[in-house]
Amino acid sequence: MASSPLFNSFLPKPTTAAPSPPSTSLSFSAKYVPFTAITSSSDSSPTAESYSLDEIVYRSRTGGLLDVQHDMAALKQFDGQYWRSLFDSRVGKTTWPYGSGVWSKKEWVLPEISDDDIVSAFEGNTNLFWAERFGKVHLDVYDLWVKHCGISHTGSFKDLGMTVLVSQVNRLRKMKRPLVGVGCASTGDTSAALSAYCAAANIPSIVFLPANKISMAQLVQPIANGAFVLSIDTDFDGCMKLIRQVTSELPIYLANSLNSLRLEGQKTAAIEILQQFDWEVPDWVIVPGGNLGNIYAFYKGFNMCQELGLVDRIPRLVCAQAANANPLYLYYKSGWQEFQPVRASTTFASAIQIGDPVSIDRAVFALKNSNGIVEEATEEELMDAMALADSTGMFICPHTGVALTALTKLRKSGIIGPTDRTVVVSTAHGLKFTQSKIDYHSRQIKDMSCRLANPPVQVKSDFGAVMDVLKNYLDSRAS
Ligand SMILES: Cc1ncc(COP(=O)(O)O)c(C=O)c1O
Ligand SMILES: N[C@@H](CCOP(=O)(O)O)C(=O)O
Questions:
Q1: What is the distance between the alpha carbons of residues 238 and 235, in angstroms, rounded to a whole number?
Q2: Overall average pLDDT of the 362-369 stretch
């Protein structure tokens, strides 16, 4: 384990006075089952094919997706009120590992892992921000909230899933499983999270990045955290194919969301939203989608809360895609006829420039079961939405601009009403995407009017000149 003060919070902490976990915690368990067992079962009867979470397996026997299935009967020994109180009692504490927004829900995430194996930066517990001015002034909505998942250790929601995956790898390595490292393909955020958590636990990380397609701030993260970084002359989908081939040949553990362990951490953001609303259910939750693991993770988190009696319904989900990388949108618009991967074009929402999402089946299931909607945003729409949100005090990433565009469209069409409680999920920190904001505000984007650009005013070092400029500005504000 690292001993640097930087990673102090990653280290197991002595237990201080804190609420006790359920005395039966050791009886909770989870296993991998084929995703089809989740989608087709109307009851919780055991499926023939299942795997221990200590096995290294990403696909079912038929090549389909897997899912982590919890022993719901064991969890149901406790009622909704019990779980609500337990989770609430852990917020804002330092007791290891419950101070993490993910591990505060440990019984629902990885119930069997030892606390000593957990690698955590106390991720989660992110700000649920009341976007009062943006909502009221620009959209005529009064109950609009932005869940800032990007205000996090590595600046994106990926930390939520990565703490789970790297903790499990840490456990497997202690069990002497022959894993030489952990690898991922990435549009930037997954690699940043993977490399930070691996560095904290002294596990080698290997990342495949599409050359020249991610932001400089994202690129520098795995470099700084000591990952082995391959910049490959292809797009994300090409990198994804390569890492899948490599991880089937070498004992490198796959860290992309194809690995269903990741989604167990990501689903806690949904539980946290309910918790932050005092267990009142919002009407809408809007999530930007790329590889499409996260939309399913949100569904799973909400669905578990309903099934275990913490709430009595789930929100309607909206998945928002960039029009330049919109295979899910096209599929939805076709009435779910036939899925066709696309070749994703360049988008300012570069982290979702994905044409062949691995979790397409998971996303469709989540949307169908939440009465969901898919929307898309053009480059101009997403950049204007980002600039507008920033002008009301936020500093969001372009992906959040995609989600806000979806909200704007659904509000304009009346599908989202003025008093509907709506949560937009902000997936990464705006500081990772400053170049897109610089391009916009300096009106340097071809074929885009950048109508909300706010470039600095060049002025001579002269009192009169400064006063003239200021008077003009103040007059324009007054009018
Ligand atoms: C900032 C950001 N937003 C949204 C997404 C989309 O998440 P998912 O791939 O789970 O759909 C990603 C990654 O893909 C991302 O990095
Ligand atoms: N946006 C992602 C793309 C990969 O998604 P994953 O959830 O499958 O890891 C990234 O940041 O790399």
A1: 5
A2: 98
Work out the number of other CB atoms within 10 angstroms of the CB of residue 381. Answer: 19
Given a cut of 60, whether residue 145 has pLDDT beyond it is yes
Q: Which residue has its alpha carbon closest to ligand 2 atom 7?
A: 257
Q: Kindly state if the Cβ of 215 falls inside 6 Å of ligand 2.
A: no
The mean pLDDT of 162-176, rounded to a whole number, is: 98
pLDDT in tens, 403-418: 999 999 999 999 999 9
Q: What is the pTM of this model?
A: 0.94
At 1 the pLDDT is 31
What atom of ligand 1 comes closest to residue 291's alpha carbon? Answer: 9
Pocket of ligand 1 (CB under 6 A): 156, 187, 189, 257, 288-294, 351-352, 397, 399, 427-428
